[in-house]
Specification:
single chain; alpha/beta; Beta Polymerase, domain 2; Rossmann fold; 3 domains; six-stranded parallel β-sheet; four-stranded antiparallel β-sheet; elongated
Amino acid sequence: MSIVALGINHKTAPVAVREKIAFNPDHLTTALQEMLAAVQCREAAILSTCNRTELYIVQDGPVELTQQRLVKWLAEHHNIPASTILPSLYVHHDQKAVNHMMRVACGLDSLVLGEPQILGQMKQAYSQAKAAGSMALIMDRLFQRTFGVAKQVRTETDIGASAVSVAYASVNLAKHIFASLEKTRVLLVGAGETIELVAKHLYENNVGKITVANRTLSRAQGMAKKIGADVITLAQIPEHMSKADIVISSTGSTLPLIGKGMVEHALSKRKRQPIFMVDLAVPRDIEEQVAELEDVFLYTVDDLQGIIAKNMEGRRKAAVQAESIVNDQCDHFMSWLRGLNTQDTVISYRKQCLDNRDLLLEKALMQLKSNKNPEAVVAELATKLTNKFMHAPTSALQSAAQGGELDKLIYLRDIFNLDQEL
């Protein structure tokens, strides 16, 4: 059995490549089920963000064959030649795969070192895999341990001490372009976590007016209410574009929402007054050709790297401590995984039983040496041994019964021979 992590990210591929294999969240359940069948793996999860697409699987076959199947399925699913993505792919196996997942969740592999959004995206990937039925014991335990590591890193280091993120960098760049944000009008496209963070930073910088455009008005209204913003539909973007000094977009759309013609028309109404635009989406929300317009300053997620780099020194120091935590927790998980081996499980169980026996026996012998009634000592030893050995099975049986887990309950009854006559 092996754990495999395969993917591309901002370090290995530009936006033009990353957007070709980004997964639509609405179709992820189907994709997971297709991947299980095509790759012939036991468990699977998919993480797809603007900066990375990664496939995580648990499988029993040869790793090389599994890798070939993963690449083939990924290319066919997105209807692109495998040669388009092969140069940008990385693959990690077993301990390196576990270590990679933990580093990703902690923000140690992010465009913005230590950014917190990736943990929420990892949790979403976990939930989607659970809903799709593509996750079982190994992957579930790995994700849970990964979340625990991320929490420990946040608590014990300063990895997230400074407000550095793609959203923060976007607002910071706007502050450099405009003398003051207090009189600027902003159009935010989307209402997801990234745009919500952008809105928060803009609000804290006393921006003049914010309008939020989203496919679902109810989702946008909840966010807009907190910052006093207006809400419009995506179809209303063209008529509001000319009123915006700043446009920042991050949606899950598979096609551009803002085209060159739309922006040209807006510029003519603005009498060539410039527009600052940031496209944080992958695939892109704003057509690449918009950058050709003279009065538009268009930036993508890749363009923000230089700005972000200036704010990273403190996080780099914290990252050294975080890496140590990740390595330790990775070792703990791999020890648990190795413990699933049948022989190791039997040895571990026998050792636990013998340790309990020796501890209680030592106490009983000490009581006998102090002239305590032998019958009372033996009775107490028998009771304590019985309670020790009954505790874990009893807890498991109660938990299964209370949770209505009939299959588990039957399994446990079988293990303890509860249905056999004495």
